[in-house]
Amino acid sequence: EVQLQASGGGSVQTGGYLRLSCAAYGFPFDSYAVGWFRQAPGQEREGISCISSSEGTSYYAEFVKGRFTISSDSAKKMVYLQMNNLQPEDTAVYYCGACFVQASGDSYVVYVDNRIDFGDWGQGTQVTVSS
Q1: Which of 82, 80, 60 lies closest to 71 in space, CA to CA?
Q2: Cα separation of 65 and 43, whole Å?
Q3: What is the dihedral of CA 72, 63, 121, 130, to 10 degrees?
Q4: To 5 degrees, how large is the angle CA 121–CA 14–CA 127?
Q5: In this structure, are strands 92-104 and 125-130 parallel, antiparallel, or unpaired?
Q6: Which pLDDT tens digit goes with each residue over 48-107?
Q7: Which of 64, 105, 111, 121 has the highest Cβ tally under 10 A?
Q8: How far apart (Å, rounded) are the C-alpha atoms in residues 38 and 48?
Q9: What is the DSSP string of 24-49?
Q10: Burial 37-65 (b: 16+ CB within 10 A, else e)
C-alpha cells in the first residue's frame, strides 16, 4: 500500500523560503517518479515538480523553475521540495504524488500518474505567503 504524507508548510513573507517533506511509504521509487502538486482555493490542482530517482532526473513547471528544487532519498522513502523566493501566488495546499511530465518549451508540465494508487491526497501541507 502506498501512502504519501506531506509536511513542512507554514507562513512566510514574500521572498522567504520553506522546505517541504514527503514521506512516501511503499512508493516504488525504482519504477515510478514522484513529485509535488499544489491547489489554491478555487483553483485546480497543478503539478509543480517531478523526480525520477531511478533516472536521476528532475523536472519543473515554468512558474517554479529557478526557485524550487526537488530531491529524494529513496532509501529513506522521502521526497523534498526546497522553495526559495516564495511569492504570494505560491500560497496553496501542497501535496505529493506519483507523476509524469511532458515537455513544454524549456520547462515541463507535471501530471498525476494514475497508474499508482496512492489513495487519496491526504491533508497536504499549507503554505501561506504574505506580501
Answers
A1: 80
A2: 20
A3: 100
A4: 15
A5: antiparallel
A6: 999 999 899 999 999 999 999 999 999 999 999 999 999 999 999 999 999 999 999 999
A7: 64
A8: 7
A9: EET--TTTSEEEEEEE-TTS--EEEE
A10: bbeeeeeeebbbbbbbbeeeebbbbeebe
